[in-house]
Amino acid sequence: MPRQIPVVYMPETMQVYLRDYDSEYDDGWLDPFEIEHVRFERAEQLSSNAYKLSDGAKGRVWIDTVNSTGATKVPIGSKVVIDEESFIVSNCMAYKCGAKVHHWELDVV
């Protein structure tokens, strides 16, 4: 059984705003929900590691399926707010162990 990402390494809380496709405005958002115990690393923090981010990404967010409260896949184009800074999800990658998702990694711009 694969280990989950320990909560101690996931100190941030993230607000997630899904697009409101019924909105009259191009930037309409549904009411936000929170995912607690995520990890956010800025692109410059990751540059010394082997991480490859999507073009233009400002950072990456890790969401653990077990230890991140409210964990769910966050669709591309969603807005996320971490430490009062807004980002748009440009890529959402699911990492599986067998048939189950272990965690998601979001690239944000």
Characterization of this structure:
The protein is globular and about 45 Å long. It has 1 helix and 6 strands, in the order ββαββββ. It is mainly beta and 109 residues long. It has a 6-stranded antiparallel barrel with strand order 1-2-3-6-5-4. β5 and β6 form a beta hairpin. The termini are far apart. 4% of the residues lie in helices and 44% in strands. The chain has one helix at residues 43-46; strands at 12-17, 33-42, 59-64, 79-82, 85-97, 100-108.
Summarize the structure.
Helices cover 4% and strands 44% of the residues.
Provide tags for this entry:
6 strands; 109 residues; mainly beta
Topology, element by element:
Blueprint (H helix, E strand, L loop, with lengths): L11 E6 L15 E10 H4 L12 E6 L14 E4 L2 E13 L2 E9 L1
Antiparallel strand pairs: 1-2, 1-4, 2-3, 3-6, 4-5, 5-6
| SSE pattern, N- to C-terminal | EEHEEEE
The helix-and-strand class reads mainly beta
Helical amount: under 10%
- Low-pLDDT parts are none
Report the portion of residues in β strands.
Answer: 35-45%
pLDDT averaged residue by residue:
90
H/I helix tally: 1
Seen as an oligomer or otherwise, the chain set is single chain
